[in-house]
């Protein structure tokens, strides 16, 4: 079953086209990683899929056309975790997470028992209980990032759009949040589209990667197919080695500039070289 389909999708920012003729299909329950250099159009595409900005072409996501469906109705099926969240002044962490329930609550209606249970469950699953009464505006960057993910999960979406979900997180919290999203995908058939810069992490969690460059899809396939050293050099201008470990997904290792061997070995060399 298809959860997301884009046919010749284009998006302009101001008068400048920044996403060009993107064709994309994502299966229900699939994790699709969106990768590409800065400015390649990842955020723009995610915002168009969430119906936040106009796009040309055809978009269907969780059975709705976000370009022609109201924000509220779209938000009952599609949640976006933004790269740069705005936090309403004075709200607590629990209140911010509760905002995720807004699309499900009738205007002038009150929260149901289910609404309250969902909020408490995501606070618990992300270990946010100890922060729940704190003002959201006074959190660290990483704490806020987990709270904003909690708000998106509280929407109980069919499709979750993640824009750099772990950019502010330490390695332990990166694994915690990506493992949680992955378990929700496996248990509930959640469909995930995640824009990520960490290519090793993107390869680990994504069943498929789509690589954007200059607003166009330049590669679409399994992580091993998309992440080759020559393609990363060409698209990112980066020196890397791609490690293929038995039974595991590819790992992308940055390499030092030619002639440099890294801090430790350079230091050892200066001190008299190896084996002395
Ligand atoms: N509001 C805007 N007005 C004008 N141009 C914009 C706007 N937002 C984005 N752009 C431009 O659109 C292009 C794509 O930006 P976008 O944020 O989608 O890239 P990205 O792949 O998400 O980048 P990054 O990895 O740096 O987050 C960039 O050239 C950017 O400068």
TrEMBL record:
Name of the protein in question: Iron complex transport system ATP-binding protein
MF term (GO), any: ATP binding
UniProt keyword Acyltransferase, yes or no: no
UniProt keyword list: ATP-binding, Nucleotide-binding, Transport
CDD domains: ABC_Iron-Siderophores_B12_Hemin
Keyword Cytoplasm: no
Stored InterPro entries: AAA+_ATPase, ABC_transporter-like_ATP-bd, ABC_transporter-like_CS, P-loop_NTPase
């Amino acid at each position: 079953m298809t959860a997301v389909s884009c046919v010749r999708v284009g998006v302009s920012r101001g008068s400048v086209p920044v996403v060009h003729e993107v064709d994309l299909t994502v299966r229900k329950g699939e994790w699709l990683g969106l990768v590409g250099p800065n400015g390649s159009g990842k955020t723009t595409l995610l915002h168009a899929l969430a119906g936040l900005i106009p796009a040309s072409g055809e978009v269907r996501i969780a059975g709705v056309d976000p370009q022609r469906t109201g924000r509220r109705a779209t938000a009952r099926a599609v949640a976006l975790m933004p790269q740069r969240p705005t936090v309403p002044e004075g709200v607590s962490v629990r209140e911010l997470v509760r905002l995720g329930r807004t699309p499900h609550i009738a205007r002038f209606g009150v929260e149901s028992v289910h609404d309250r249970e969902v909020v408490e469950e995501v606070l618990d699953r992300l270990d946010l209980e100890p922060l729940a009464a704190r003002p959201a505006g006074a959190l660290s960057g990483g704490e806020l990032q987990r709270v904003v993910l909690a708000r998106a999960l509280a929407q109980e979406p069919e499709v979750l759009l993640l824009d750099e979900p772990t950019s502010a997180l330490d390695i332990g919290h990166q694994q915690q949040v990506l493992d949680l999203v992955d378990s929700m995908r496996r248990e509930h058939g959640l469909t995930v589209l995640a824009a990520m810069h960490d290519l090793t992490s993107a390869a680990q969690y994504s069943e498929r990667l789509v690589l954007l460059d200059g607003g166009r899809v330049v590669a679409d396939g399994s992580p091993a197919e998309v992440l080759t050293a020559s393609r990363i050099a060409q698209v990112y201008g980066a020196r890397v080695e791609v490690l293929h470990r038995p039974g595991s997904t590819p790992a992308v290792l940055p390499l030092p500039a030619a002639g440099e061997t890294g801090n430790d070995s350079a230091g050892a060399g200066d001190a008299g070289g190896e084996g002395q």
